[in-house]
Amino acid sequence: MFARPLARTARAARCSARRLASSTASTASSGFATRATIAAVGAAVVVGTAYTFLPHAHADASHTTKHGERIITLEELGKHWQAGSLWIAVDGKVYDVSEFANVHPGGARILLENGGRDTTKLFNAIHPPNTIRKYAKEVPCVGVIDPEELAALASQRTAEDDRISAAREALFGVDSVVALSDFERYAESLLPLHAWAYYSTGADTEGALAENAAIFKRLFFRPRIMRDVREVDTSTQFLGVKSSIPVYVAPTARNGLGQPEGEVAVTRGAGATGVFQVLSHYASRSLEEVKAAACEGQQIGWQVYLNPDRERSREAIEEAVAAGAHSIWITADTVTLGKRETERRLNAEANPAPHGKPLSRERQRFGVHDANMSWSDIAFVRKHAPGLPVVIKGVGAWEDVVLAYKYGADAVVISNHGGRQLDFAQPPLKVLYEVSKNAPQVLHRKDFGIFLDGGVRHGTDVLKALCLGATAVGMGRPFIYAATGWGSDGVEKAVEILEEEIAIGMQLLGVKTVDELGPQYLDTSKI
Questions:
Q1: What is the pLDDT of residues 313-372, one digit of tens each?
Q2: Which of 104, 369, 417, 458 is catalytic?
Q3: Distance of CA 198 to the CA centre of its chain
Q4: Whether pLDDT at 394 is above 70
Q5: Annotated catalytic, 417?
Q6: Of the residues 20, 146, 346, 371, which has the maximum number of CB atoms within 10 A of its CB?
Q7: Do residues 15 and 75 both lie within one domain?
Q8: Does residue 91 sit in the same domain as residue 199?
Q9: Distance CA 120, CA 100 (A)
Q10: Where in 417-512 does DSSP place strands (E)?
Q11: Which stretches make up the FMN hydroxy acid dehydrogenase domain (predicted)?
């Protein structure tokens, strides 16, 4: 009654057959040492290297390999750690990213924090294969790491590596997980400190992050009784895609930091349970890899950050279309990066600036996202993704929901980016409530969907959003945490938990289908 086991078994069988027919790239897992300063705080950042901890080969920087490549020692690499002279090493090769830092899709900060080091583990955890090859003209290779030092580097283990290994060995089976909060609780011990900081923190004081979840506790149900609810149906359909529950996997970046398979593991779990997934522009795995792992007929949306150089955006969108994207989700709330104090502080403590380094007076730019977006960009995206649904993600005011409909978007996502952008931006549920009061004409339309993400942690939260008029809700962090601990099985379990909670809630509310949900089942007086 709750889980529709026969349908789920059939989906799982189809997915298993598809998996046997495809191979999936995995993240490189070479370990390496950290700087002494990082070791002092528990080896919090996995990308540090410690030339002082490794045997010195004393290879002269002018030496070359038999192929004519310059041999670079770790000591030489370590001299290039600041703006204007910034090198990183990945998979044994050294790259000059001095100029590229200004246009790096992830911003200059992460390159500056890791300059002069071997960043193989971090790089491979957050980038799809062939990323460097894609930017070969902009990121020149200046040489290779000395082979002897590279071998010693690969054999290094940090205290953090040992901590995470011990936590994984102690992890219980996924069937013992009771609620989505369990995934989060155990993920913290399984993640490198910098990864936990990236996933879990919010902007500034984290007021928006906290309120996203807190507001659901101020919205109460008005259940109806004496109704036939022996059988309930939790399924729905949006953007032409059927879903087992009114939940989709929201786009989240860098899934590979916690799970070697990255987003591929999420795809497998979503496919086995009949849930729609949206892949992030900054995913650890490419859309091609994710599509190869998908079940037959499984649809994958793709989220994009528009670049000031529209030619770059055009190329990215057309690549996504060619790879089989179901829809294009334009993120509009990241014209610049929010100040994430907790994440910055943890990284600063683990990777302090060298003693005596002068004050940097130049604000680190985050210029790869367009700060001059307009509603005409909907037409721009639609031109290069003909026939695909176009969704605007990051709407924070009811007036912009109306404008998105006016300018031809197929749907919006009411969202404050998980509380990671503008601190004290209204929680998405409050914005949805304002839509229901001020613009009810855009709700429940066949030609326009209204999604919500942020703060959803229980099936009852999903029901509250649907009662206010949401088409479906997106969830990001819970699926990251589920995959971190248990891979695709964790994702399946997360969907199973939600499906049960939604079904129980529907029965106790007195409804048989999600279409029956409405404001009559809510007390909104405390919002």
A1: 999 999 999 999 999 999 999 999 999 998 888 878 877 877 887 776 555 555 579 999
A2: 417
A3: 10
A4: yes
A5: yes
A6: 146
A7: no
A8: no
A9: 18
A10: 449-453, 472-475
A11: 172-527
